[in-house]
Amino acid sequence: MTAARTLVLHPGLTQVQRDCLDALPLTGNHVVSGPPGSGKSLLAAHRAVHLALTGRPTVLLSRSNLLRQLLRDMLKGLAVPGAPVEASTIHAWIQKHFGDGIPRSQDGWFDWTALTGQAAGMRGTHDATTPHLVVDEGQDVSPEFYRLVRLAAESVSVFADECQRLTDTNSTLTEISDALGRSTGRADLSGNHRNTREIASLAEHFRTGGAIPRMPVRSGTLPLIRHYSSARDLADDIVIKAVRLPDERLGVIVNSMATGGDLMRRLERAGLAHEPQLYSSEASAGRYRDLDLARPGVVVVHRASVKGLEFDTVVIADAESDSAIDPTSATLRMAYYAMITRARQRLVVGWQGNRLPRHLEGLNGWAQMRS
Predict the structure, then answer these.
(1) Which Pfam families match (predicted)?
(2) Cα separation, 88 vs 73, whole angstroms
(3) Helix (H, G, I), strand (E, B), or coil: what is residue 58?
(4) Would you report the helix, strand and coil content of the chain in percent, each value rounded to 5?
(5) Which of 29, 148, 363, 366 could lock onto 202 through a cystine, CB 3.0 to 4.6 A?
(6) What single string gives the DSSP state of each residue in 307-334?
(7) Whole-number Å distance between alpha carbons of 227 and 324
(8) Cα separation of 186 and 249, whole Å?
């Protein structure tokens, strides 16, 4: 018997995205893969709304708190009266679901084996409060998490791209599917609706595997690999861009929060039309924790928190911090793949020092070089 499918149609989706959404049954576990710019986060939000219409609690999960904020704001425009969806980090949801006294492992993370044992003990007691879970950027979570939620949720829908694994607790698509069970459905989402062809072509240089994505139709300027003489030179260039494009969002991606903090101080002194924002995962609340990602202006963010985000212009501020890393390293390549593909219109890869970092060599034709 074919599972019932929702008839609710949401605006703003491409035909490919609508077809993918409509093809997902409202029962069972599913893994949806797609390249950057294919709309995985948007589709995850739509999927969560569809599942909420079944009457069960539905939670849209992410590992990153900054992505949770973005998903929360997406849901505000999609929510259906009487079918609320909660956006939560995985960490917060586990604490809420399993209560106080959650067992921890020696590394400070959860003891997945103990938690899975608890969930197995509750199996068979599922009722109307057992939630549907939708996980965005699911490649950044360990297989142990998926073995746990297979037992603790009514259904699990995962949106992922294994070419963007940036954490030390990540999973391949196969590992996710295996952990969720043999009956897990698989779907592919194609297309790149974010980047220009030039930005996507540079990102392709860093891609580590998977199917070759279809190049965008939209064209723009070549990405720029720029040498900055100092931190002041870097900050001045960001200020110039923000002044020239006052209605756009400019993302500054750093590999060091010390660099990010120094940039913020310089940007705040510049008197920009929109107050610059900085996200710090160490902040518990306040201006460095809760950002307005919809408004124009500069946002400074660590590379570990960029997944799912997009900006009109992206400046990767400190590429020299990777100079000592093997340029063939899969971890390095995935990091640059993820960072580059955050840019909608313009991209600058900045570096300081006396020598071009090795991973930026040989990119003539894909990028302009400027001193």
Answers:
(1) AAA_19
(2) 12
(3) strand
(4) 35, 20, 45
(5) 366
(6) TT--EEEEEE--GGGGTTS-TT-HHHHH
(7) 17
(8) 34
What residue spans of 80-111 are helical by DSSP H?
90-98
pLDDT tens readout for residues 2-35: 444 444 456 678 889 999 999 999 999 999 999 8
Report which DSSP code applies to 173: H
Is residue 245 over pLDDT 90?
yes
**Phi and psi (nearest 5°) for 274?**
-115, 130
Interatomic CA distance for residues 201 and 221, integer angstroms: 12
Phi-psi region of 28 (alpha: psi -120 to 50; beta: other; left: phi over 0): left
The model carries a pTM of 0.90
pLDDT of residue 11: 64
Separation between Cα atoms, residue 178 and residue 143, nearest integer Å: 8
What HEC string does 240-295 produce?
HHHHHCCCCEEEEEECCHHHHHHHHHHHHHCCCCCCCEECCCCCCCCCCCCCCCCC
Q: Are 340 and 314 spatial neighbours (Cβ–Cβ below 8 Å)?
A: yes
Exposure b/e, 245-270, CB count within 10 A at least 16 = b: eeebbbbbbbbebebbebbbebbeee
Question: pLDDT tens digits for 270-299?
Answer: 999 999 999 998 888 889 999 999 999 999
3-state helix/strand/coil string of 284-310: CCCCCCCCCCCCCEEEEEEHHHCCCCC
C-alpha 172/C-alpha 158 separation (Å) is 12
Contacts of 371 (CB under 8 A, 6+ apart): 226, 227
The answer to whether the beta carbons of residues 251 and 344 sit under 8 Å apart is: no
First to last CA, the chain: 64
Cβ atoms of 59 and 72 within 8 Å: the answer is: no
Query: Maximum CA pair distance of the chain?
Result: 66
Alpha-carbon distance of 102 to 353, in angstroms, equals: 47
| C-alpha separations of 300 from 59, 191, 344, 364 in Å | 28, 28, 17, 28
Amino acid in the structure at residue 104: R
